[in-house]
Give the backbone structure.
Amino acid sequence: MASATLEGRSVLVTGGAGFIGSHLVDALAQDNEVHIIDDFSTGRRGHVHPGATVIEGDVCDPAVVSEVIADVDLVFHQAANASIKRSVDDPSASHRANVQGTLTVLERARRTDARVIVASSTAIYGNPTSVPISEDEPTTPTSPYGVEKLAADHYARLYNELYDLDTVALRYFNVYGPRQACADYSSVITTFLEQACSGQPITIEGDGSQIRDFVHVNDVVRANLLAATTDRVGEAYNVGTGRSVSVLELARLVADLTDSRGEVIHVDRRPGDIQKSRADISKARRDLGYEPSVGLHDGLAALVDGDGTVRRR
Ligand code: NAD
């Protein structure tokens, strides 16, 4: 059975200065030798654990990846353009980071036989025929980002089939938690919290009936650690909670927790927006022993409290 603790390993976290990558590095740094490759396009130096060795560089550059990969036996590949909007604005740049970057990592890992855990996404499913979404759901992405992540997900499987490389693809649903970017491309939770805390109305795209499965970054980190030790390689797993809320319910929850007026305004939905998303996590439960531990109310309350530490209420 997979274990959620790693010790004495030498690992590479690509994108280790980013939101998810930096939490992964925090979980690993004390008991493992951790290397990071990050180009700091969205990552921040202040998020990087002081115990990690940082290489500033492009994950698409084989020389950069080769330099580090020779010393590691495990790679958590998080580096990517993680923004759907940016992929729509500039598909070529996004394709390069997300597809070429993944291929470069897998190709270098093949030469040293390092296991690679690839960050895939719920965006590969597009608008699902039904929820909850199992891994067998047809994949019809509605954005360049979704197409790119689907290619990365397939490459992970293919490198296992063709070259017997240990790979696992983790299909993250809507991840949230401390350090998530507060920029133009921020997630709906960060946006709502920013708006509510600064006394602005909460902006909902469409009528707010769209549902999402919000998974706390601590649970995503645990899924990665379990994937690092599982013997069920060459597989893809949904990483969500199996629960969903509507965007309108989320807005009310945020208003409640921030004691704000809760004024909501509706704007046009963006093209390609998904109506329903909720993960079926039974495969990850069965094969990895994955169990989400942070409920949405607790995770949001911790963000509102400021230090991001999740305490049960
Ligand atoms: P993020 O933008 O915070 O992190 C990405 C990191 O990769 C950043 O530090 C960035 O500087 C770095 N990076 C980008 N391009 C690079 C390149 N060419 N070379 C080296 N470094 C590069 O995003 P995140 O939310 O932490 O996402 C991490 C991974 O999880 C991504 O692969 C993303 O597609 C995936 N994912 C995220 C979510 C989510 O809800 N946040 C959902 C599904 C999948």
Remarks:
- The first strand starts at residue 10 and ends at 14.
